[in-house]
Amino acid sequence: MAKGEGLRYDPTMFWLRWIFFSLPLWLGFGGAWLFRTVAEFQLTGESDAIVHAIDGPIGYLSPLVPADGVEGEIADLLYEPLLRRDASGTLSPNLIRAWTSRTLITIRCDSEEAAGEAEARILAGEVPESGARPIAVDRSGSILMVAFEGHAPDLERAVLGALPPELLGDYLLVKVRADHSVDDLIRSWLAGSVEKAQVGLLEFIGDREAFLFVQGESDRVVNELRRFLASNPATSPRLDLVGRRCHTTVREMLLDLREDVTWHDGTPFTSRDVAFSHERLTRPDSPLPLAASFDFVELLEVLSPARLRILCREVPATMLESWEKLPILPSHHLGKIAETVAEADEADLWSSFLMAPVGLGPYRLDRRRKDGGVELVAHAAYPGGAPAEPRLRYRRYSSLESLLLALRTGTLDLIEPEERFTEWTRRHPGLTETLRDRPRFQHLVVWNLGRAPLDREPVRIALARGIDLSSILRDTNREYQLPVKSLFHPGSPLVAEPLLLPLYDPRGAERLLEKEGYRRDDESGVREDGKGRPLAFSLAVNADNPEHRRLAEALAEQWSGIGIEVEVEPLPWQELLTERLPHRDFDAVMVSWEIPLGRDRREAWHSAASGPGGGNLSGLRDAEVDKMLDQIRSEPDPVKVMSAIASFQRAIAARQPCLFLCDTGRILTLRAGALESRAPGAAAPSPLAIGKAGLAEVRPWWVKKKVMPP
Asked: Is residue 549 packed enough to be buried (19+ CB in 10 Å), middle (13-18) or exposed (0-12)?
């Protein structure tokens, strides 16, 4: 270009330069798009698995916390319960293959000859005179042990009453309890005691209880023992005089485990796993409220790799339900954590386990995918037979278009639908179908009965009558909501009548509030008591749960219509769980809990569970309700249990310690005709169905339907 000439705009050169410098960028974008598209096409072309489209990363897979949706489904496939329910709702063997209950009566006879005569009478069938017959009799010197099958009440009275009194020893029975190491405590006393000759017999029950049979002059022995215990307070020892007695009774349960079960890593499942899980999960700091469920356990002993012995303080009819609820943890993994890891690091190691769990279920975790999904493979050593479908793939798709491509090409089997997908299926009917799982979770507003005005029953009833649930509850593309009909598992044979809750009656609600002294303020529209205090409270909700927030806002709006002011208080779930709920620091709180399979509901409603950290979140303390709950737990007669459950549900409906909102169940979306069920031993596949037991019982046996060539 000559000096002094001006610059000229050349459009051809401009576009050539733009294309030249932009080409690498477009090649990069094009390559990335092409790579992703090819990858999607390749993955959707895979046919080695049931493929489940998810819309978010899979987090912790825990046996400890019930989860809904996909994560709950996966956890049910990885972990295995000790017992299962059959189609009628009855507990049946699973990892526990058999259980035996026994009553052991130990009799201290007057002499060795007296013990021999008592033994002869028992073996001859004279003792007891009627009822249960002994399954074993053993004699050692003057001590006679008689074993009976089962836990019949007053069995010892029937045995001792049939024996001549002159055959029985005369002792004062002294019971000593301690928090632990009671045997060391008593043996230390005996080593230095000057009155120990009076102690005829000594028996230890576990690590916390000892029985001393004192002969002759007992006052000096008892006083010496009292002084010794007072001077050794470290284990909080307590002494009780039981009275004149010549026997002790031990009720025990034997659990026999299957011996053909292995963990996903090949390690045999043994009784040590059960003992470890029981010890870890019934501690006061356990993440599960299981301690009360196992308060009948005095001692748990490992007798062999496949047998455990449980000494029972009491024998509730719901003992097996407690074992059903106990999650089983691998002691060979987590036992090392307990022994070698500092408490500060234990949470991190638990976190690692829950991201890569080892279970006993029909499928094991193969790997976590880069897209946030997971892949499971059939557990070949699953007792009863491995699932027929070798692999389950839970994966995310990069776009709706790629998901629809997989659906149309028949390589996607289940979908967690979002709104755009649901709208698409409405325009293209016949490509998908749905299944409804049984209701699994119950949602409710818990009232703090220790705070005004919620401590007044008429106010709580008015709050229930002021809500039209039919205008609030809804079905989504993943979940349905139903009004609460029972406090127990849907379809339980022990529930004879529904839970009859207050009906929607806003005028009746207002009359109740008027009668309680709450009048509307003409200016604000909020009701006030005689001192001008507004009828108001706060409703705490999990800030991260959009459905809870929607329900809470809808409730607050309807309550405002009858003059009640409600502030919805969204809080982090961790704060609710660790601070608010344990200390009952709330007016009202919206919670969800898993509908229990069993009948023991003491942890949720009994006065004994109303203290700090207990499961009775409302703080209900009612002697009549407690009596019903105790009968439901202890009564072996199903007819009487049904009657007690009916009375209990009527009592809860009348007292309204909670506002019962809804039961929810999962809606599964499947590619139409893609899957069928093939259970082990079945002669032929069967159509998909979800029975009374729910998805967890049938999901392991789903397989891809075979397409026959034309």
From this structure: middle
Cα separation, 595 vs 576, whole angstroms: 20
Q: What's the pLDDT at 661?
A: 98
Which residue spans within 81-185 are E strands per DSSP?
A: 83-85, 91-93, 96-108, 134-140, 143-149, 172-177
Strands 658-671 and 479-482: antiparallel
The DSSP bridge pattern shows strands 702-704 and 519-520 to be: unpaired
The C-alpha angle with vertex 315 and arms to 309 and 320, in degrees rounded to 5, equals 65
Cβ–Cβ < 8 Å for 438, 692: yes
Rounded Cα distance between 554 and 169, Å, is 72
Q: 662: which 2 tokens? A: 């809804």
Which residue in this structure is represented by tokens 């009612």? 622
Q: Which of 238, 210, 243 is nearest to 226 (CA)?
A: 238
Name beta bridge partners: 103: 148, 251
pTM, full prediction: 0.86
Question: Within a domain: residue 540?
Answer: yes
Question: How far apart (Å, rounded) are the C-alpha atoms in residues 60 and 344?
Answer: 20
Inside any domain, residue 154 = no
Strands 414-415 and 50-54: what pairing?
parallel
The Cα–Cα gap between 489 and 512 comes to 33
Tell me if 95 sits within 8 A of 328, measured CB to CB: yes
Which pLDDT belongs to residue 384?
82
Q: Give the Å distances, CA to CA, from 617 to 6, 8, 325, 481, 575.
A: 86, 83, 20, 23, 15
Residue 230 within any structural domain of the chain? no
Q: Are residues 499 and 451 in the same domain?
A: yes
Total number of domains constituting the chain: 2
CB 173 within 8 A of CB 244: yes
* 551 and 649 fall within a common domain: yes
Q: Residue 669 pairs with which residues in a beta bridge?
A: 415, 434
Q: In the prediction, which pLDDT does 337 show? A: 59
Same domain membership, residue 555 and residue 486? yes
Is residue 471 located within the same domain as residue 526? Answer: yes
Closest CA to 443 of 593, 229, 641, 601: 593
- 362 with 387, same domain: the answer is yes
What's the CATH number where 530 sits? 3.10.105.10
Residues 447 and 426 in one domain: no
Q: Which domain holds residue 502?
A: 441-665
Residue 216 falls inside a structural domain: no
Task: Identify whether residues 608 and 530 lie together within a single domain.
Answer: yes
Q: Report phi then psi at 442, rounded to 5.
A: -120, 135
Q: pLDDT confidence of 3, banded at 50, 70, 90?
A: very low
Residues 541 and 657 in one domain: yes
Cα 385 to Cα 388: distance, rounded to the nearest angstrom: 9
Is there a cis peptide before residue 128, judged by omega within 30 degrees of 0? yes
Residue 315 exposure: Cα atoms within 13 Å on the Cβ side: 17
Could you please report the per-residue DSSP string of 57-102?
A: ------SSS---HHHHHHHHHH---SEEE-TTS-EEESSEEEEEEE
From the list 590, 582, 658, 664, the residue with the least C-alpha distance to 625 is 658
CATH number at residue 77: 3.40.190.10
Measured CA to CA, the distance from residue 653 to residue 655 in angstroms comes to 6
How would you classify the pairing of strands 675-677 and 50-54? unpaired
Write the pLDDT tens digit of every residue in 162-192.
Answer: 999 999 999 999 999 999 899 999 999 999 9
Q: Which two tokens stand for residue 105?
A: 């009566």
Q: Per-residue pLDDT tens for 542-557?
A: 999 999 999 999 999 9
